[in-house]
Amino acid sequence: LQGKPHWNKTRRINLGGLQLMNYMQRILQLRYPHHTNNISLSRVEELLNLTHISTEFFEDLKKWKQPTYFEKNALKVEFPFVPVSRPPPTDPEVLKARRQELGRRLTEINAKKREAKLEQNLALLAELQAAQSLEDQESKYRKSLERMRLKDSAELDSLIIKTQSAIQKAQDAKQRDAQRQESSEPETKKRREDMGDTERMEFDVWIEDIQSKLQEIRERKAARAARRKQLAKRRTAASQERMRIINQLARNNKEEDTFGLNDSDWDIYKQISRDAEDSDSEEETLKAQEYEAVLREHGSVDNQVHKNSPEWHRIHLSTELIMVPEIIFQPSIIGLEQAGLAETIEFIFSKFSADEVKRLADNVYLTGGLSNIKGLKERLEVELQQMLPFQSSFKVTISEDPMTGAWKGASQWAAKSHNQRNGFMTKAEYDENGEGFLKHHFASNINIS
Fold first, then answer.
1. Nearest C-alpha neighbor of 239 from the set 257, 253, 226, 249
2. pTM
3. What whole-number distance in Å separates Cα of residue 256 and Cα of residue 258?
């Protein structure tokens, strides 16, 4: 005021561009962990130029929840990378021969497993049927049941039906393999890059169909696995419900239901639930392997973005665009317990009279690197309008060169001869006062406690 600084009424905010860059670097590295090395401070300094200060921060922050707003306003930043050229496609005939050999080996392995299982089931069925034929001979029939660890005829009949069903499934699968070997294999498809527009569209539809079928098989397998896991645990809802149903079916009286309270009841339940466990069908497993092989061949497994793709080296800037510079007004975002820029200005105004506040508000001058952030002037004008009385005047001016303006002003001041005489410390003054001495003048940096 009137050319004189009021040092005792000034306040410093311990916040600058470094804090903003550190915060932006941390949140981007957390969001994109595979780009931790690429998100360096030097790159973040460039990304900081893309940010802007919002005049309505909380309202603008809510807009980012909307997918349409995100797609329209998010900025895509691509890191520099050198794409690795893909090798030329393998001869279709070679691919066909490899696939045929792989399919033949896989079929042989599965056929051997199926044959071994089929032989076991046939032997078991013969043994069960032999035991069933001894039903008229009480003693031999009872010994046969005990040898096979069966309790009664009902359990024997159930095991026979189950074994016959497994044998029929194995025989059907064997017949399907024979028919599959007789059928001719389709021609090898070209790479997607070598297709025309129509052919590429048909190829994408075919890949999506394969992916959806594979996902359906995986979901069915996961559901069965979860069911088996639930039934194997004693206190799950599925196990408790099954025990309740078993108890209702087995009870012959109307007394209180206490089945499941004792450990012996749980042993009985596990024995009963053994027959109810589903197993993944062999046909589904073969189909899933076939679909996965097709997707691997065409580089479309689980829709993953390949590291050689530009999309892999791309990050999206969304809420960071307004969140990072908002730290200037809300330092609590990064855990600093101090007032922001607007609160500090309001506190300083409270130290002056109404006339002095009017003069100060008409001469708000912004300089320094952070003044280059878009929207700072507009946001500060909104804050001044809110803190000043109704219809008060104010003016915010930004330096023509915020980055080096302060240094240029200091160099011009130091270039004047009378400032050198009055502002610079002489050797005699240094020898007398020591290194901690500060000479008092207009531009001296005096620390007022």
1. 226
2. 0.53
3. 6
Mean pLDDT of the chain: 81
Q: Are 286 and 292 in contact (CB under 8 A)?
A: no
3-state secondary structure 223-276: HHHHHHHHHHCCCCHHHHHHHHHHHHHHCCCCCCCCCCCCHHHHHHHHHHHHHH
- The owner of tokens 């498809």 is 189
pLDDT at 449: 42
Mean pLDDT of 63-78: 91
Helix 341-349 with 376-387: angle, nearest 10 deg: 40
Please determine, for residue 361, whether its predicted confidence score (pLDDT) is greater than 80.
Answer: yes
pLDDT given for residue 184 in this prediction:
47
As given in the structure block, the two tokens for residue 79 are 């890191």
Residue indicated by tokens 């090898």: 188
Burial 255-274 (b: 16+ CB within 10 A, else e): eeeebbeeeeeeeebeeebe
**pLDDT tens readout for residues 136-185:** 888 888 888 888 888 888 888 888 888 888 888 888 887 877 776 655 44
The pair of structure tokens assigned to 8 is 């005792």
Tell me: pLDDT of 256 over 70: no
CA nearest to 50, candidates 80, 27, 76, 71: 76
pLDDT tens digits along 419-430? 887 788 888 888
In this structure, what token pair is assigned to residue 266?
Answer: 């749980």
Closest CA to 243 of 225, 223, 263: 263
Per-residue confidence band for 92, with pLDDT thresholds at 50, 70 and 90: low
Q: 438 CB contacts (<8 Å, ≥6 apart)?
A: 444, 445, 446
